[in-house]
Fold each of these.
Amino acid sequence: MVTVAVELENDSIQETPTPNNNCVSNKRNGHNIKLKNNDQIPGYLSIYTIFQFIGILLILSVFLWLQVYRTGFGFSGTIKICNWHPLLMTITFVYLFANSILHFRNFRNTTKRKLKMQHAAIHSCIIIFGVLGIWTGLNSNLIANPPIPKFYSLHSWLGIITVIMFLSQFISGLISFLYPEIAMKYKEAVMPYHIIFGVLTFALSIVTSVLGFSEKIIFAVNQQHGHLPTEGLFLNCVGIVLIFYGALVVYILVKPKYKRSSKPDDGVTHNGATH
């Protein structure tokens, strides 16, 4: 008889005995484990649709702002290169990061192992395109005439902290949850900190983005900002939507009824051993 570790709603682990390696009981405390689809959870499909709509709206708004007010994108010229920075960082450290956080909520009937792999894959994309976004910001400062000082603003300082926290979270997550030799009790102990640290990193990315937009618009419109030009109003609205988007993500994450229920095979590897 093998023992299967099943992750419960409160992130604790319950060991369920099974008669053989190929069969896992679907009962816990005498009741069948019923997995609900997203459309069976009251309100989830609606709030998830709103979440995706706002995320895509944010990306389109940033693109529209840079294309209409900031001369667009290119691979030559300080401004056109620099314009890639806010767009790529919005896509990666806001939209993709949010989807990565909620991935376990959105695909609740997928096995935990697959969800972990997909979660790591999304984070890998964030790192790749995030590096490109950071490079465009730094490179545009270097080629400017005269060169623009680097890492002098609160936005840049918080950006560095956010990236360090994100990379630390990514590496620790790979080791803790995907490395097969890690004991289940260690995974259980690490999980709450992984979640809290991830939410803090996401919140910091939202704050950093808002500061970046404020810094960009102040430098761009200079003295006209006091007269509320159209560009300033537009970007202020983007900042408000960005804050609301971050709050919505945290709300979906902490709402108990939106939490993914455990599947009987969440704690079983392909060879039937516990992990």
Amino acid sequence: MTKRDFTAAVIAGLLIGGFAALIAKSLERESAFLYDLGLNGWRLASIVAACFGIVCLIIAIGSFIGRKVKTVYEAVKFLIVGGLNTLVDFGVLNILILIFSAASGTLYTIFKAVSFIVAVLNSYAWNKLWTFGSHEKTDAKKIIRFFTVSIIGFGINVIIASIIVNVLAPPAGSSETLWANVGAIVATVASMVWNFIGYKYFVFHRKEGTLFVHHSERKS
């Protein structure tokens, strides 16, 4: 593992932990489990520490396996970035819901669109600089392809989330805010599958022969 990868993993782990704690705190009044748990400062810090530890463990395992198969290491980094993007999406969404006190209707659709756009910008930066393109120059075609894939993923994400929240009725006993997050989860899974396929094989597709790590790359 390079110093660059180690630094990126540390930053990603702290961001993931921070957003996870933020989301948990925002849903504390909507979830009986979280409310009974009592999310004080110590427990929120524990969430951050746990997420950080999990990210460090994942990147360490990926780095070990990736010594032989480079694609595995890329997939692990993509997974970490995907987790961060998801939490950025949910974090921004819940902040907007909290500020404007609206968890359904047209405002929810707007909030979901805004949160997804922020997550896409985060995704572009991390995937370009770390997951796939950290050693490559900026390529206009690659940027256009990235945003093309992301725009399609954006449509998938917002449409699915809006259908679940605004068309399907929430289960009995579920609040609007909790159901809004369920819609976001399902939409995120669908868009992440699309984005992985698009980024891997359309945007950051590598030429044949780069699957395995060469000896010169291991030393860098």
Amino acid sequence: MPRTKGEKDTNVNLFEYRPVRPFIQIPEKVLMYILQLTPSSFAKVYLYLYNMSYGLGYDHTVTHTSVREIASNLNISIGRTQNAITYFKKIKAIEKIESRAVIGTKYKVNVPEYSSSFNNWYFTAPNKVRYIMMKEKLLTSEKLVTSKIKRYKSVKKSLELGLFDKSEE
């Protein structure tokens, strides 16, 4: 039945507001660390590197990137970007894997973990934290792709079975 002017749609399809483009899920601990970072431009740099690595299913940036490229993409100064990268190297949030003149650098991106005994944050490899693990196994790019395919098939099957009908009359 079509809506008349002024009526609100009360039957919202469960999947109607899901992202249609690639998106990244950020674990709560990563987000909690990022939110308390000052200056905020440091948070932007870490999230950018996080997206260039974990967003693509790896623990390192897939492509080479440079300070100028990061600064340009995030609309922050080159000096501020360099300061952020130096800071993250110092606290072991990122580690340089490979550097090439003119092309840029690849970074391994570590994830934050909170130590309640020392009351501070530290960075560690993703295979040492539970929030990056899936079914008691390390999340790797191959497993990530397999997981996404299984999830897609499950959602498709649920829709075919009519488990999420628009109207429940």
